[in-house]
Amino acid sequence: MERKTKVNAEAGKQDLVITREFDLPLELLFKAHATPEIIAQWMGTQVLKLEGKKHGGWQFETKDGQGNVVFKANGVFHEFIPNQQIIRTFEMENAPFGPQLEFLKFEKLTDDTSKLTMHVVYRSGEDRDQVLKMPFEYGINMAHDRLQEVVRNL
Amino acid sequence: MNLRRDVFQAIADPTRRAILVLVATHSMTAGAIAANFDTARPTVSKHLQILTECELLKQEQNGREILYHLNPQKMKEIADFIEPFRQLWDDRFNKLEDIMKQYKPKK
Q1: Which residues of A make CB contacts under 8 Å with B?
Q2: CATH 2.40.30.170 describes domain B2-102
Q3: Opening angle at CA A131, ends A15 and B11, nearest 5
Q4: Domain boundaries in chain A?
Q5: Which residues form a coiled coil (chain B) (predicted)?
Q6: Which of A119, A132, A138 to mutate to test the interface with B (most CBs of B within 10 A)?
Q7: CATH homologous superfamily for the domain A15-152
Q8: For chain A (length 154 residues), average pLDDT per consecutive 10?
Q9: Contact A42 B14 (CB under 8 A)
Q10: Among A101, A102, A95, which Cα is nearest to A33's?
Q11: Which residue, among A110, A88, A105, has the nearest Cα to A17 in the 3D structure?
């Protein structure tokens, strides 16, 4: 499959850039980032709070099959301009690294396509590399959860 | 896991990155590499040692000289290091795209 999502993480830097082009009109791409029920679906997490406005707060929580909280994150919006830009902080709770700053730029390419650029700034290069490593463990957890679901539905 | 982290730390240093760029096209002796930097020779030797220890550089004996060259396999591992993170976001965004393609605005 074509690699649509790109991650540019230069060695020794404390930031990274994620870019992705979507076969979606700009308005739908933004809506997917502004509507709690939709975020919940594609992020695979519960959205406890989402105040989509300047100085508004947000909170995500993910539970495993047994109802244990496995992921909790929160932050604040510094800018929330529909179809243009979201600037927010992101902090994972009970994690060894501090908050990160995220700049999300939404762009129209054509009437039916759009582009998202996520610039993420970490406190240090070490923090960034720790976060980059997390999907290894995350992937194992997800696979485990899915396995349990399958088993339960047998 | 620890080994991977060492590799990442190794390339976090600007001098070490410059060394990797230098030897990317052709093998060089420690002296020839050091000649490209203002830093003291022992400092460059230390960098070469770190890069060799995490296998980013390979040593080859050429007569009485030791030449350093890049290990492309190890460089590829660094690129792979980011891959699970990229894959995570790619999965999320694929899902986002599927959901929004089905999306019907409520009236």
Answers
A1: 3-7, 9, 11-12, 18, 20, 22-24, 28-29, 31-32, 38, 41-44, 116, 125, 129, 131-136, 138-139
A2: no
A3: 60
A4: 15-152
A5: none
A6: A132
A7: START domain (3.30.530.20)
A8: 78 91 96 95 94 97 85 95 98 87 98 96 89 62 52 54
A9: no
A10: A102
A11: A105
